[in-house]
Structure formats: structure tokens, C-alpha cells
Design goal:
globular, alpha+beta, 19 strands, 17-stranded mixed beta sheet, two-stranded antiparallel ribbon
């Protein structure tokens, strides 16, 4: 049992990951573990693997590394960051209600909203920092806002939330065949490092129904950075106000693009699913 690792499965609005505390367990090949453990039927089943690590900077309390189901390492995940806040607090690892989390897209501040008895984390607000619209050269040097997929043209807005997103507003999001168009758009030549794709529909004032094709994972129940990118794109194109409710397949997130500091704030739930133990793949 030398290679047996304890893990916790959690989800944020249905976006589910496997969490491992690397203060206790060392994982030498997280990309391989992510691919093996993320498989349904033969593994745990998840959208990927999240490692809770020691920070590399004094500006952070903890560090997050996240690997998609295909083994690729992601820059950031809003849903996973909320889950880490709940994990750290409710497992007694950190009793601060404000936690600084190091990610590949910067240090994010997690504000934990506690239950009345102070024992549980009900929701978490994450400061997702400022969105970027000047398309980073490494993400989308040829992205003009108009892409083609399977003989159909899609007009969208590029937003970087520390990772790349292309947000497409449609009349009826339920009519979009995400499994057909998502992988084509993700791998469009405009995106050398691939891209997260959001299909969105404004249903009522400041409420946006969004479905996600996540880079490296495919269809996911939710995407925190995708929700932020959708809300920002909606405001930028005059479709909503600065605060929006983003309704995804797995639940809803509240997103505010602050006028005061231009930061995007994401608030939503985080839930434990189960604890378990798995052997590391050979």
C-alpha cells in the first residue's frame, strides 16, 4: 500500500475534481494520475486532478495546481479554488476566512462565507482579478472574433481570465450541439494553446444561461473562469449589467465586474462528494 493515496472528491456547481493534499502525499506524475483517475468506470471519475501545495511565494498561503482530464495543466479554475477554500477550512488545515491562493494566473483571494455556527463554509467569493481583452499573443494571435466550425460561423468575444475563453452569444443555447462544435472551436488555428468555449444566452435581465466546452476536459457542468468571462463579455457587448447570474448545467454563480477596481468577483458553492483511497498508476 506504499503507493496508496488518500483523496477527496469535490464539486463546485457540478464541476468535479479529485483533490490531493501534497503536504502529505507526493505525486511525481500528476498528468498521468489525472488521466487515469479522471476516467469514469475505471477511475474515480472527474473533470481532473487538483493538488493542494506549498506556495512558492510569501504572498500566498497555499498553492493550487490543476490538471485536466486529458493530463494538460490548467492555469486556473474558479470552481476548484472555491472547493480548496472549503477543503482547507472544514478539514481544519486553515482556520482563516480569507485565504490567498497561488495559481499559474496569479494569487487569488478567497473570502469564505461561513455558517452561523462557524463550522461550515456555505459559499466562497473569489477575486478573479482583472479580465484582459488585448488578446495575448500565445493564446489567440489570429482571433478576429469570427470563427467557423462544421460549416457554421460563430461570432464571439475573447476574454482572458488568466486562461483563454471565447464567448459566443446565441438565441437558444439548448439548440447548440456542444459536442460537435466545441472541440473544433477549442482547437481552431486561432488558438495555438487551445481555448475554452462558452455558448451563452441572455434569458432575463442579468441572467445568462451558459454551457461550457472546457479546454482539456470537454463538456463540463460548470466553469468558474468561464462564468466570469461570460459575464464580462455580456457587459462589454451591452447585454447585461456589471452583476450577472450565470446559470450552467450544474448550478449558478454570481459574477460581479467591479467598477471600482475592475476586478471580477465570483461567488458560489463548494461541496464535498466523498473521500477515498486509490493506488497510483504504474
Amino acid at each position: 500500500m506504499a503507493n496508496s493515496i488518500e483523496f477527496t472528491k469535490m464539486h463546485g456547481a457540478g464541476n468535479d475534481y479529485i483533490y490531493v493534499n501534497t503536504y502529505i502525499y507526493n505525486i511525481d506524475d500528476p498528468a498521468k494520475v489525472a488521466k487515469e483517475w479522471s476516467r469514469y468506470h475505471t477511475g474515480v471519475g472527474s473533470d481532473g486532478l487538483v493538488l493542494i501545495c506549498k506556495p512558492t511565494t510569501a504572498a500566498a498561503d497555499f498553492r493550487m495546481r490543476i490538471f485536466n482530464a486529458d493530463g494538460s495543466e490548467a492555469m486556473m479554475c474558479g470552481n476548484a479554488s472555491r472547493c480548496i477554500g472549503k477543503y482547507l477550512y472544514e478539514k481544519g488545515i486553515c482556520k482563516k476566512s480569507s485565504i490567498k491562493l497561488e495559481t499559474l494566473s496569479g494569487v487569488k483571494v478567497l473570502e469564505l462565507h461561513l455558517s452561523k455556527d462557524g463550522k461550515h463554509v456555505d459559499t466562497v467569493t473569489v477575486d478573479m482579478l482583472e479580465p484582459r481583452f488585448n488578446v495575448p499573443e500565445q493564446y489567440a494571435p489570429d482571433c478576429t472574433g469570427q470563427l467557423n466550425a462544421a460549416f457554421r460561423s460563430f461570432k464571439g468575444t475573447f476574454v482572458s481570465m488568466g486562461n483563454p475563453h471565447f464567448v459566443i452569444f446565441v438565441d437558444n443555447v439548448e439548440d447548440i450541439d456542444i459536442t460537435r462544435f466545441g472541440p473544433i472551436l477549442e482547437n481552431d488555428k486561432a488558438f495555438p494553446q487551445r481555448c475554452n468555449i462558452e455558448f451563452a444566452q441572455v434569458t432575463t435581465q442579468n441572467t445568462i444561461r451558459t454551457r461550457v466546452w472546457e479546454r482539456g476536459s470537454g463538456v463540463t457542468m460548470a466553469c468558474g473562469t468561464g462564468a466570469c468571462a461570460t459575464a464580462v463579455a455580456a457587459y462589454k457587448t451591452g447585454r447585461s449589467g456589471r452583476t450577472s447570474t450565470i446559470v450552467m448545467d450544474g448550478g449558478s454563480l454570481e459574477i460581479t465586474w467591479s467598477e471600482a477596481d475592475s476586478h471580477v468577483y465570483m461567488t458560489g458553492p463548494a461541496e464535498f462528494v466523498f473521500d477515498g483511497r486509490m493506488e497510483l498508476p504504474e
